[in-house]
Amino acid sequence: MAYDEGLAERIRQHLGGDPDVAEKRMFGGIAFLLHGNMAVGVTGDDLMVRVGPDATDAALARPGARLFDMTGRPMRGWVVVDSSALAEDATLGEWIDEGYGFAAGLPPK
């Protein structure tokens, strides 16, 4: 599956070349990992965000968000944000910061 390279580039720009962030192909797209923990990624045209189990309900209440489910078993703590909800850079930045913040609280891999 191809992924939206334009969205990936917007993520790169927001992260500003953070040396602690690595890119890795995952889930048929590309993931951005902080110290080995996924923070955000792009699958198709959509954004995957790791928000953590405690923040899942609040994340799902935001426009364009749905539970991440690739295998028929939804993954609590992960959401997918529809590309239509990411037109504004500020909105995309909020999602990236949320995923980055959650990953920053995890032990490095």
TrEMBL record:
One Pfam family in the UniProt entry: TfoX_N
InterPro entries, sorted: TfoX_N
Protein name, entry field: TfoX/Sxy family protein
Ranges of residues in domain TfoX N-terminal: 19-102
Gene3D superfamilies xref list: YgaC/TfoX-N like chaperone
